[in-house]
Design brief:
Rossmann fold; alpha/beta; ten-stranded mixed sheet
Length: 326
């Protein structure tokens, strides 16, 4: 696929995502004696990751003329997690609706809403005929968080998504052979991790993805608020993992494993995730012959909410439909 960079100047509508970068949260995992084989390393996840179980449709959260939003729960690593299930009110294809797993960006867990966070994105995809699953990562909303340690839970979020992915065949309305993924900001980092672990995703969209190497991918946001805390957090990371093992948690070291076509969006005036990170990511994708399309949005912000939001979503839908398997 030809790699394309497009600058957009079409005014649409201003929207606001609840996406921000507060202090890093606590982690479920403890240090291992052999930190070179930590279960959260990408290679470890490729070898084996926990599957989901006990998928349960709990109740209907909202019913509209175009879709039905339901609350579902599932279990992974002994935790009960929730997710939003958005089902289109359209005639179901014989194989089921194609699926989009929506990986949201960083939102303060106490402010995150299963129904309302990233609602515009979920509703747009569902209204266009996609079944949408938006996981509430561990510790968000009513999802259980487990024990807490050192603000590393972000590294475990891909497990929550992979577990939900494993349960898609149990959803009656879903087409398990056509699963797509959307990731914004931290959700882009999660999406890239998932793509390096599995090739089950037909195509993926990344909006302003966090793609810097570990631990800068986390420390950058902490440092902007509290440089001393960032220094202390780095000491903790070195103690738990060993600095020589940081690369095992870094996306760039495993980009060559990505088999999924990508569509990437980023605004040049992003105030949260540096635009330069995506510029560097594109160089790495080129080096590893990863198939992608890139759209650059001049003077646009982190959420593409100045004038590009719906245009980017429209591009995502067209891109996903191009990759639906018959």
């Amino acid at each position: 696929m030809k790699k394309i960079t497009v600058n957009i100047f079409i005014i649409t509508i201003c929207l606001f995502f609840l996406s921000c970068f507060p202090a890093a949260r606590a982690e479920t995992y403890s240090p291992k004696e052999d930190s070179s084989n930590h279960p959260l390393q990408i290679e470890s996840l490729r070898n084996s990751y926990p599957k989901g179980s006990h998928l349960t449709i709990k109740n209907t959260l909202q019913d509209t003329p175009t879709l039905t939003n339901k609350l579902i729960s599932y279990e992974v690593e002994g935790l009960v997690l929730n997710a939003l299930l958005s089902i289109p009110k359209q005639k179901k294809p014989s194989a089921g609706f194609p699926v989009i797993i929506l990986n949201h960006g960083h939102i303060q867990p106490q402010k995150y809403s299963t129904l309302n966070s990233y609602k515009y994105v979920a509703d747009y995809f569902a209204a266009d005929g996609f079944l949408v699953l938006k996981p509430d990562y561990r510790g968000h909303a009513q999802s259980e968080s487990g024990s807490e340690l050192h603000g590393l839970e972000r590294l475990a979020y891909p497990i929550d998504v992979l577990a939900l992915l494993s349960l898609v065949p149990e959803i009656a309305e879903a087409d398990p052979d056509n699963i797509f993924m959307y990731g914004h900001s931290m959700g882009g980092q999660i999406t890239l991790t998932v793509l390096e672990v599995t090739d089950q995703i037909k195509a993926a969209s990344l909006w302003a993805p966090v793609s810097e190497q570990f631990p800068e991918s986390s420390l950058y946001f902490i440092r902007r608020r509290d440089s001393k805390l960032a220094e202390e957090r780095l000491k903790v990371y070195k103690k738990i993992f060993g600095q020589e093992n940081f690369v095992a948690f870094s996306l760039s070291a495993y980009t060559h494993l990505i088999q999924t076509p990508l569509i990437i969006h980023h605004g040049t005036k992003d105030e949260s995730v540096p635009y330069s990170w995506t510029v560097n990511l594109l160089k790495i994708l080129d080096k590893n012959n990863v198939d992608y399309i890139f759209h650059s949005y001049e003077n646009e912000n982190h959420n593409l909410s100045k004038y590009s939001f719906y245009n980017a979503l429209k591009r995502d839908v067209a891109f996903f439909r191009e990759h639906i398997a018959p």
